[in-house]
Design brief:
Number of helices: 13
Radius of gyration: 21 Å
CATH class of the largest domain: Alpha Beta
CATH superfamily of the largest domain: Enolpyruvate transferase domain
CATH topology of the largest domain: UDP-n-acetylglucosamine1-carboxyvinyl-transferase, Chain
Structural class: alpha/beta
Helix content: 25-40%
CATH architecture of the largest domain: Alpha-beta prism
Number of domains: 2
């Protein structure tokens, strides 16, 4: 029997929360630190599992690395190790070995890398014979994962000939690419992004001190809770207006679902306004990690929705589109996958299960986006709740601090 939590909501929500550090910024900072031979420690580094596997890799004396379920680490390290002298083996969890990596591997091979698939063609685990890469001109689809693009961009300055990248099709998660380029620029590396072409000439990284921002994606679950509890008010410490993170757009998006944001020097205060749009439409191509939060929130508030731009959700920790359809059906909501990259709920309901237990699919965002359903239903069971450690190790203790009761069963 897997571990289960039964979650009971508070009557009111008024609290101050210290959010986890951004996993996206932490993982990029670690790679850039290594490429610049930087002796400065990264400040406010995330303590989540996905970042810890990167730290463990850099501290390891072995040439074999198990990155578990950390997709960012798999993509970033594959590119990083391809340019590092030596022979390396990189593997992960069962699900990681089901997540395609061939677009990145094939591009790296075209740039001079030597990489072999140890099991299934196109998927981890990988054997890498690292050496300085020649670089050059490549074509890469922007519709699969921006992490492939970011992985290549970070190693581009240390290639002999730099990198000219032509990105084909619609670019998914464009703000994450901009985050990568902004952090590279902080280290003294210039890139030219013109339309769908990015050019990075050979350059030397400077050693700089990184301070990682709190995580705006983690903030989305608190916006969700505030949206569902009238009169609620939550201070989220450390968040600012001029964030490098694309998911900071959550502050704008939640205005249509009844949450205002006040920016203060020490963070933000979010408040329930009782506002509710009749329908919610959004293209999540720039913020796919927010889609689960908004799907659950709209259902819980009885707001029909149509989402587009979520094609990358199918190759995340799980097929997040299928998982949302399965789990929200348990709660009485009938969602439909409406073509590639589309998810819709037109308000259609079914009889909810008598005592639904939410499965989390080894996916931290399934747990965190559906747990606030306890507010609507009075209580909710979540299976395998420890999946939140992947990005937000303190999520459940923060909920307890905010007045939720969580019973282990």
């Amino acid at each position: 029997m897997p571990l289960q939590y039964t979650i009971f909501p508070p009557d009111a929500l008024r609290t101050t929360i210290q959010l986890p550090a951004s996993k996206s910024m932490s993982n990029r900072a670690l790679i850039l630190n290594a490429l610049s031979l930087n002796s400065y420690p990264v400040k406010n580094l995330s303590d989540c599992e996905d970042t810890q596997v990167l730290i463990d890799t850099f501290n390891s004396k072995s040439n074999q690395f198990d990155i578990k379920a950390a997709g960012t680490a798999m993509r970033f390290l594959t590119a990083f190790l391809a340019g590092m002298e030596g022979e390396w083996i990189i593997k992960g969890s069962k699900r990681m070995h089901e997540r395609p990596i061939y677009p990145l591997v094939e591009t790296l091979v075209a740039l001079g890398a030597e990489i072999d698939y140890l099991e299934k063609e196109g998927y981890p685990p990988l054997k890498i014979k690292g050496k300085r890469l020649k670089g050059g001109e490549v074509y890469l689809s922007g519709s699969i994962s921006s992490q492939f693009i970011s992985a290549l961009l970070m190693i581009a300055p240390v290639m002999e000939n730099g990198l000219v990248m032509h990105i084909e099709n619609e670019i998914v998660s464009k703000p994450y690419i901009q985050l990568t380029l902004s952090m590279m620029e902080k280290c003294g590396v210039q890139a030219k992004w013109d339309g769908n072409d990015i050019i990075v000439k050979p350059q030397v990284y400077n050693a700089v001190e990184f301070v990682v921002e709190p995580d705006w994606t983690a903030a989305s679950y608190w916006y969700q809770m505030v949206s569902l509890i009238p009169g609620s008010e939550v201070m989220l410490k450390g968040l600012g207006k001029n964030s490098l993170q694309g998911d900071s757009n959550v502050a704008n998006l939640f205005t249509d679902l009844g949450v205002t944001t006040e920016f203060l020097p020490e963070g933000i205060i979010i408040r329930n306004t009782k506002k509710k749009n009749k329908k919610f439409f959004h293209d999540f191509v720039n913020e796919p990690d927010l889609a689960q939060t908004f799907a659950a929130t709209c259902c819980f508030k009885s707001v029909p929705f149509l989402f587009s731009g979520i094609q990358s959700l199918k190759i995340k920790e799980t097929d997040r589109v299928a998982a949302l359809i399965n789990e929200l059906k348990k709660l009485g909501y009938l969602l439909k996958e409406n073509g590639n990259g589309m998810l819709e709920w037109d308000g259609e309901r079914c009889v909810p299960e008598k005592e639904p237990a939410i499965d989390t699919y080894d996916d931290h965002r399934m747990a965190m986006s559906l747990a606030p359903g306890a507010i609507l239903f009075g209580s909710l069971i979540v299976n395998d709740p420890h999946v939140v450690f992947k990005s937000s190790p303190d999520f459940w203790s923060d909920l307890r601090q905010a007045g939720f009761i969580i019973e282990e069963r």
